[in-house]
Specification:
Mean pLDDT: 90
Order of helices and strands: EEHHHEEEHEHEHHEHHEEHEEHHHHHHH
Helix content: 40-55%
Distance between the termini: 49 Å
Largest sheet: 10 strands, mixed
Number of helices: 17
Shape: globular
Number of strands: 12
């Protein structure tokens, strides 16, 4: 079950902690306390709108924004929805509400290990304060079973974007999940009223070709007007104006006019085979599901044995497991995968590391090639 937390500007009698008019928690589940909120949710709750955003909020033109990040100890996945209120209880000021769901280990695994569903379901969030009909604070608010959201048209998704830009974005996300690389800024086509929803569809879809422990480490936000905000978030969707600003320091991807910035060619070339493989998964459902299941079985089995930590993805492991898959799956010409004696040695080294976590049939297929 997911723990819930609600935060907005409220009158004093509806604030849980500050007891004066202002922004505070007004509902929360019993699974968290003030210390947890201060340590893990405060960076999001301290957000303040820009002048431009205030104008949009007053005119009801700013749709909900969604984000995903992690607790300081990395045990919990936290998803939040910012919704915007034209006039708050004073009738004079605009404000916002943040509804957060804290996904502990079992819920987190359910979300990240799904092969067909998006990582964040917007239907799980309350985006209208009036729906809650708040009459008193509640520190024991109900927890909720997280429902997954189905993603369609994965096969067509990659074809919407220029391949060179899209592949280099895949590379940026791949290394971003390992806590390496820079912040990733993405700008999409569309009016501000559609921006956040398009960004959520984009991130929900693109992450489906990544193994579960990479998806498990990626933070994102679907709209920002100030690129410097939320230093703890890796992937930020921003407008074109923000993308070109000096405060957007990192990998920059304008998905419309095919502009790339921030990735060195030699970096990308070192992982080009892996990126081409990920790109191919969008159009091949059979191989996509086979590979992700193969990868998941190895990594989760090694984690359960205490030999690995599935929370932390590793690029070297990713490349090695991919090579094992190509040799054992029957989908590829093994002589194109292992061309030299060095390739054979590398394959054997990876096999020795992971063979105890592989299915018997897969082990037999690999051993027959090695011999």
């Amino acid at each position: 079950m997911a723990i819930q937390h609600f935060y907005s500007r409220m009158p004093a009698k509806l604030t849980l902690y500050i007891r004066t008019d202002g922004y505070d928690t007004f509902y929360k589940s019993s699974g968290i306390n003030k210390e947890y909120i201060d340590e893990n949710l405060s960076s999001i709750c301290k957000w303040t709108p820009s002048k431009q955003e205030l104008a949009l909020m007053r005119d009801s033109k700013l749709p909900p924004t969604y984000c995903q990040y992690f607790s300081n100890d990395n045990k919990d996945m936290i998803q939040s929805c910012f919704s915007y209120i034209p006039l708050d209880f004073t009738g004079e000021r605009s404000s916002f509400m943040i509804h957060s769901l804290i996904l502990t280990e079992n819920e987190r695994k359910k979300v990240t290990m799904s092969l067909k569903n998006g990582i964040l379901n917007p239907e799980m969030f309350v985006s209208d304060l009036k729906e809650l009909n708040v009459t008193k604070v509640n520190s024991d608010y109900k927890m909720v079973d997280y429902q997954l959201t189905k993603i369609y048209n994965l096969e067509e998704f990659a074809t919407l974007y220029y391949p060179e830009v899209f592949k280099r974005l895949l590379y940026a996300i791949l290394i971003g999940a390992t806590n390496k690389g820079k912040t990733i800024f993405i700008s999409l086509e569309g009016d501000i009223s559609e921006f956040s929803n398009k960004a959520l569809d984009f991130i929900n879809t693109i992450l489906l070709v990544f193994p579960f422990n990479f998806r498990n480490q990626l933070s994102f936000i679907t709209y920002l007007s100030d690129p410097s905000k939320f230093a703890n978030i890796k992937i930020k969707f921003v407008t074109k104006e923000c993308l070109n600003s000096s405060s957007a320091k990192g990998y920059k991807f304008d998905m419309t006019p095919k502009i790339i910035d921030g990735i060195r060619d030699e970096e990308y070339k070192n992982k080009e085979d892996e990126i081409n493989f990920l790109y191919s998964l969008f159009s091949n459902k059979q191989i996509r599901e086979k590979f992700l299941n193969f990868y998941s079985n190895i990594v989760s089995s090694s984690e359960e044995s205490g030999k690995n930590n599935y929370y932390i993805p590793d690029l070297k492991d990713f490349s090695g497991i991919l090579k094992l898959f190509k040799v054992s799956s029957g989908f590829y010409n093994v002589f194109e995968v292992i061309k030299t004696e060095e390739d054979v040695y590398d394959l054997f080294s990876v096999y020795e590391r992971f063979r105890n976590y592989m299915k018997v049939n897969d082990r037999c297929n690999i051993v027959s090639v090695i011999k």
